[in-house]
Amino acid sequence: MTYASTPPHVLCQDLFKIYKIADLEVVALRGLDFIVDSGEVVAIVGASGSGKSTLLNILAGYDSPSAGAVQVGGQDLLRMSSKQVEQYRQRQVGFVWQQTSRNLFPYLSTLDNVSLPMMLIEMDAAERRARAVDLLEMMGLERRAEHTPEKLSGGEQQRVAIAIALANHPSLLLADEPTGELDDETAAEILDLFGVVNRELGTTVVIVTHDPDIAYKVGRVVMIRDGKMSTEIRRRITFQRISGVAEQDQELEEFVLVDGSGRVQIPRDILDSLNITGRARAGIEDGKATLAPDE
Ligand SMILES: Nc1ncnc2c1ncn2[C@@H]1O[C@H](COP(=O)(O)OP(=O)(O)OP(=O)(O)O)[C@@H](O)[C@H]1O
Ligand SMILES: [Mg+2]
């Protein structure tokens, strides 16, 4: 795969992930390509079981693919030693899960929760505190610093989770359905915060969501189907952004994605309306590729 000048922040090529449970094999990713530029915001959508969490876990260094290549920030994740992977997880990537309980330690105050990742990399106490206070301010939580998670609302807990994820200055922020358990209004506030993080810190953001309006809230949405990227929706103008408000007046463009081997997933509605099954005639007409049913 080629890219213009600077390498992309995230580069996945022909990723496969096969889970084996006893004699059964589940193919979670099948030849997935995915590129994210530095400082970009991308949303990933797809049906349940399509491979979204699998991809995010691989990018976070929690899991490795069965085949394919993954680079983040120019580093090959598959060539890292376990110690290097641990450092990568601690410093270069932040992760926010859907379940608020998974993001926070129940007995620690908000401030201590945010400080913990910095303790693990042995940042000194004064710097730690200053960083935690800054992040809590950015998340609008300065008055919740001494509260334990049980005293916080779901939305506040997710704000803490974002602060924790950002503690060690990662350049990549991954979030797996971070608003899945929140009401619409709170979900919009949290999405806005991802926008603040992206704008103010320049953090690259990859967010998995089931939000049906997401295309009107981010610059680019990619859809996973059966473990492979199938289509992409971009807004025609103002590309790089994320906000909680759906800007319905934005003009969107939808593309099918062509992978490194020329493979394309034709959207189901097109196949159905042309009655294409199994086999089709491909051609070129007026500078366009055409696909017609095999009559
Ligand atoms: N640890 C695992 N062991 C076995 N199979 C797994 C494992 N994790 C995921 N799978 C399978 O891999 C496929 C993709 O799962 P994944 O969790 O990535 O989907 P998803 O798109 O995140 O779905 P959802 O929207 O429900 O979260 C599914 O068929 C799932 O059952
Ligand atoms: Mg998932």
What would you say this structure looks like, in words?
The chain is an alpha/beta fold and 295 residues long. It has a domain at 266-295. 29% of the residues lie in helices and 28% in strands. The protein is built from 8 helices and 13 strands. The protein has helices at 52-59, 82-91, 100-103, 110-120, 125-138, 154-166, 184-201, 268-274; strands at 10-21, 24-36, 41-45, 67-72, 75-76, 93-96, 172-176, 204-208, 220-225, 228-235, 252-256, 280-285, 288-293. The strands form 3 sheets. A 7-stranded mixed sheet has the order 6-7-8-3-9-10-11, sandwiched between helices. A 4-stranded antiparallel sheet has the order 2-1-4-5, with helices on one face. The longest helix has 18 residues, at 184-201. 37% of the residues are buried. The mean pLDDT is 92. Residues 52-53, 176 line the site of magnesium ion.
In spatial order, strands of the major sheet run 6-7-8-3-9-10-11
Strand composition percent: 25-35%
Helical amount among residues, as a percent range?
Answer: 25-40%
| Cofactors and ligands | adenosine-5'-triphosphate, magnesium ion
Structural class comes to: alpha/beta
Shape: globular
Output mean pLDDT.
Answer: 92
* Radius of gyration computed on alpha carbons: 21 Å
Give the CA-CA distance, first to last residue: 36 Å
Low-confidence stretches: none
Q: Give helix and strand order, one letter per element, not per position.
A: EEEHEEHEHHHHEHEEEEHEE
Report the strand count. 13
Q: What composes the largest sheet?
A: 7 strands, mixed
Please work out how many helical segments DSSP would assign: 8
